[in-house]
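Input record, target 12 of the design panel.
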């Protein structure tokens, strides 16, 4: 019974007292030394990269291997102070809770983070750690915005106030780029080999992006240093995947009530996890391949698989599902009508545009996606999936349409998804309730969508988003037919007519 559970704060002293239902580190954490510095210790990092390293240490606990690959987390933003406080209180320990579709919770205490530095309090401590020869990898989950890419030019946005401050001669670093470049300068001066910079952010070609932006930043400080970085520093690409919802108070309560763990900041996630990593390191690396990481020569096929199957399928379900009255992804993916549509898109339109993906059973992967989306415990909102569509549809779905048009392949489902976005952007659902359109281009999108009925091609005539698709007769026919059906019949009836 719940009342019989003795709730204890998570700490090294209590970690072995939570019972057989809770996995705990089997290795000696006092022997773990930091070999990786990680910027951006949030939910995803703790559910993904830190979990893999904890698994590696557990698997090698008998011989002490991998214990020199502990993580030193670094926070540079004001809001990271809370993570610093939790990490200090729990000596880096936290609970990762896998949420299975049947409601089963699978908790595991993760011990791979052995140090956490809050940079605003002691920037020199961060630089000292980065300059330490024991640090061979610096990893990043700093979000797309953390790379300071000018979205128009694709170059470094040096006008960013944080970057500008770090470029002042003699300035103490405050941002990630400032710390990484200054640490590389110190290592170069001391004759210490550079660390590998390993981006784990969910952006295509993340290693290429990190290399380009960091080197451009370094060039504004010291051209010779930038040349050295270009020659000597490795930036492997990676593809990462695991749905990691924001931790809710209910998650903390369930952990305490069911397992007796009082954790200041647990992490919840889905069962599925994937990490495809380019094997391009400047020095030593952990034996990631021993714990399920796919080490490959080229990440791009896996990126395209994710973009055109997972990401594009999110768009294929979110607008149509929302218009039909659903509000969560799992509701849509427990409806066979929508599942059949999603599988049809993936099989007949998304998959034909993909190169071979070594080591992946695509048919199994696609059905796994449906199972993941249908997990009621994750509770992914359609509103979240519908947000910022102007950054998503052009990158994820438009390339599929272009490839299929070029190869005379099917485009009807993709065209319907674009039409559903246009219908969603009108700002009212089929029940007459208002839709809050969240997008950096909201005003332009909503204004164009208001004319969908009398000017059905206005929405897709935005060449910044759709290029010349509006000039293609086959796309125009499929799109206008779908848009008219959404207006006249609604989303559900449109899918039923397509299936019939």
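The sequence produced for target 12 reads:
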């Amino acid at each position: 019974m719940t009342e019989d559970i003795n709730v204890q704060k998570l700490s090294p002293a209590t970690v072995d007292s939570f019972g057989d239902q809770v996995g705990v580190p089997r290795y000696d954490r006092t022997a773990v030394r930091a070999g990786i510095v990680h910027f951006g210790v949030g939910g995803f990092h703790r559910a993904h990269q830190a979990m893999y390293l904890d698994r590696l240490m557990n698997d090698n606990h008998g011989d002490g291997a991998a214990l020199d690959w502990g993580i030193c987390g670094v926070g540079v933003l004001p809001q990271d102070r809370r993570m610093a406080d939790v990490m200090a209180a729990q000596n880096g320990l936290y609970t990762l809770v896998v949420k299975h579709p049947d409601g089963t919770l699978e908790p595991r205490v993760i011990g791979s983070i052995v140090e956490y530095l809050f940079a605003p309090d002691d920037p020199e401590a961060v630089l000292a750690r980065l300059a330490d020869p024991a640090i061979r990898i610096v990893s990043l989950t700093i979000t797309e915005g953390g790379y300071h890419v000018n979205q128009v030019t694709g170059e470094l946005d040096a006008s960013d106030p944080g970057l500008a401050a770090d470029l002042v001669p003699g300035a103490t670093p405050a941002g990630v780029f400032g710390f990484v470049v200054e640490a590389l300068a110190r290592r170069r001066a001391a004759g210490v080999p550079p660390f590998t910079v390993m981006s784990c952010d969910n952006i295509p070609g993340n290693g290429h992006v990190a290399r380009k932006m960091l080197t451009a930043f370094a060039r504004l400080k010291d051209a010779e240093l930038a040349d050295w970085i270009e020659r000597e520093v490795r930036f492997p690409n990676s593809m990462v995947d695991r749905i990691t919802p924001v931790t809710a108070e209910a998650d903390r309560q369930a952990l305490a009530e069911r397992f007796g763990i009082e954790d200041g900041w647990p992490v919840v996630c889905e069962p599925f996890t994937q990490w495809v990593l380019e094997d391009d390191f400047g020095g030593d690396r952990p034996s990631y391949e021993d714990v399920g990481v796919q080490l490959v020569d080229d990440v791009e096929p896996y990126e395209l698989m994710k973009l055109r199957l997972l990401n594009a399928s999110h768009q294929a379900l979110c607008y149509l599902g929302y218009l039909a009255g659903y509000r969560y992804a799992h509701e849509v993916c427990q409806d066979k009508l929508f599942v059949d549509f999603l599988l049809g898109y993936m099989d007949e339109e998304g998959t034909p545009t993909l190169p071979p993906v070594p080591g992946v059973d695509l048919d199994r992967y696609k059905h796994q996606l449906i199972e993941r989306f249908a997990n009621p415990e994750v509770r992914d909102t359609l509103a979240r999936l519908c947000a910022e569509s102007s950054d998503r549809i052009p990158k994820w779905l438009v390339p599929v349409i272009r490839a299929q048009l070029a190869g005379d392949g099917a485009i009807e489902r993709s065209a319907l998804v674009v039409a559903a976005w246009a219908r969603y952007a009108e700002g009212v659902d089929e029940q007459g309730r208002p839709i809050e359109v969240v997008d950096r281009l909201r005003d332009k999108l909503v204004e164009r969508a208001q004319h969908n009925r009398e000017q059905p091609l206005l929405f897709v005539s935005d060449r910044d988003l759709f290029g010349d698709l509006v000039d293609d007769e086959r796309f125009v026919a499929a799109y206008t037919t779908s848009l008219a059906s959404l207006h006249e019949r609604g989303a559900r009836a449109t899918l039923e007519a397509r299936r019939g």
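The chain has two domains: 2-295, 300-499.
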